[in-house]
């Protein structure tokens, strides 16, 4: 644009000189643009956000209400550090049922022990087979195991913790990874549904290791056919306008999605260089995926070119002031400037197209 301004001034001065000489033929001569070299970049735009590559939802294995919070949003925690304490909050019916189960299992253990003693006496007299005695022994062991499970369940409901198989089962939810707490989903006093094989459970917090960030966004269907994994990307973050982040296109979705009557394709971009700044999850960003780049090629504004079928031409002003229609061979375009492979030389003057009059 600077070159255009300088050329425009030169043309006006020449026209003024012509008027002083009494020649009014150049008064309305079109402006020219000097052919120069420059860099051209063909790119596709993706719109999206900066996100952790892996985000974990923290859930509880026991039901109850949130009693205590050990860490908050923004804190960095190590794997195994406590996050929340869940206070068991059984209904009166659940508590009564758990106590009755313990009583029933105690009766079963007592009866199986008596039965085992009788079977042993018969075995010693030779009136019982070893196989039948083994079956009685197994039934007694199973009854003891059922009693232990019932007692553990009751202890968990009443106290919030219990030892099971040498491991401590407690109502304190611990961090599954080293990472930052991004979001908390519950407050103290909120009810908690446990994670089990038949229900998803309440999400308590969301965590992520912020060292592995990616860009997730969408690109228009017009451009997706020109993209391929591994292309370099320049990312501009709205909250950090002076920071340029470099990345690499790592994933292109095979399925499109509809957004406000537009068809787009999700993409993922791996961040390579963050520019030395701390990035936060959720930053809005635009990613310019570089499809092709040419450095220091002969180029002119694309508006100067007339395309007719398979050919293209421009009007050139010679050194003697005459005009010439010149057929050219074009190359890469960035939608503003276009590469000229053949037909023009650096320093030549290309005429602007005449302005169309309305009405």
Concise summary:
The chain is α+β, with helices and mostly antiparallel strands. Helix content is 24%, strand content 43%. β7 (161-164) and β8 form a beta hairpin.
How would you characterize the overall build of this protein?
The protein has 359 residues and is an alpha+beta fold. It folds into four domains: 1-30; 45-54 and 210-293, Beta Barrel (Elongation Factor Tu (Ef-tu), domain 3); 56-88 and 171-209, RNA polymerase II/Efflux pump adaptor protein, barrel-sandwich hybrid domain (OB fold (Dihydrolipoamide Acetyltransferase, E2P)), CATH 2.40.50; 89-168. The chain is built from four helices and 23 strands. A six-stranded antiparallel β-barrel has the order 2-13-17-15-14-18. Strands 3-12-10-5 form a four-stranded antiparallel β-sheet, with no helix packed on it. Helix 2 packs antiparallel against helix 3.
